[in-house]
Amino acid sequence: MVTFIIKRIITIVPIYLIAILITFGMIHLSPVDPAEAYFTAAHVQATDQLLEQKRQELGLDQPFLLQYIDTVLNISQFDFGTSYVTNKPVWDEIATRMPATIQLALCSLLIAIIVSVPLGFLAGIKRNGVMDHASRFLSFIGASIPSFWLGYLLIFFFSVKLDLFPVEGTGTWKHLVLPSITLAFPLIALYTRLLRTSVMENLQETYVLFARTRGIREYSIMGKHVLRIAISPMITGLGMNLGHLLTGTIIVEAVFSWPGLGRFFIDAIFNRDVPVIQAYVLLAAGAFLLGNLIVDLIQLYIDPRISRKGRQLP
Predict the structure, then answer these.
(1) How does it sit in the membrane (predicted)?
(2) Is it the case that residue 88 has pLDDT exceeding 70?
């Protein structure tokens, strides 16, 4: 088990280095000159001499490999450079906004799990029943409605018409309800379908038949065996979506004026704030890798056979 975990952690390092290389390379291939972007964000009319001086200050006159190595070393120290707009370290700017995004992501993830697990499980064991049809309808709606439109619908009904929740901002739990539901709704549709399909497949497995012939109670079979194995694809989906939740809340944060990383990233794009854009992309890659690592550990706890399979690999 320890060997399995160590292998997973070791594989993250080269993958993240490749992610840094791709991000760093795409920024250099971009027609936007970081030096020009800096003076544009500062609303300064730069001369050729100032541009050349700034390029030397940013290290843009160095060979590509040396720039990449310097970037990797700086990132290892959580140094993503200085924002062109605020003239503050990018990591400090991210650290001040990250708690709001994490709060929104965890709340929406909790809502998605609470709703999708019982709904998908009941839909799987009661095929073509009421819960099954309800889950299909919910999945169809969740996959069809864009997040920004759903957010505006919730604002219209629950904020404007019923005056139950605030329209925008943060501060109380009421501010968190509508953006969390908006972000969780497509996840509920996805996880419900994944769990429903997995439950129906596992009900056809021989271990369920053997458990029934041994006289094990039905609720024990469903809870301790079927659900524990059937939930594996859903957990994998959670790991895949964790990076999206932490860094992909751009639309939801814009709709509800949520002071998180999403709005910060949008402002960086409009201002051509290259260090912020690069940091955001690398943060998304890190969140994705971390999510998959967490999923691997959870899967290992649910199914210890994964560790044994890993030792059999060459």
Answers:
(1) Multi-pass membrane protein
(2) yes
Q: Token match 């709904």: residue?
A: 119
- Residues 53-92 as b/e (b if ≥16 CB within 10 A, e otherwise) read ebbeebebeeeeeebbeebeeebeeebbbbbbbeeebbbe
Cα–Cα distances (Å) from 71 to 54, 57, 65, 167, 288, in that order, read 17, 14, 10, 40, 20
Question: What mean pLDDT is predicted for residues 77-91?
Answer: 86
Q: Are 292 and 247 in contact (CB under 8 A)?
A: no
Give Rg (Cα) of the chain: 24
| Residues whose CB is less than 8 angstroms from the CB of residue 237 and which lie 6 or more positions away in sequence, other chains included | 190, 191, 194
At 235-268, the pLDDT tens digits run: 888 877 777 777 667 888 888 888 888 878 888 8
The residue among 231, 232, 283, 278 whose CA lies nearest residue 102 is 283
3-state SS assignment for residue 82 = strand
The token pair at 45 is 């009319």
Cα gap 35→182, rounded to integer Å: 39
Q: Could you tell me the two tokens for 58?
A: 């940013």
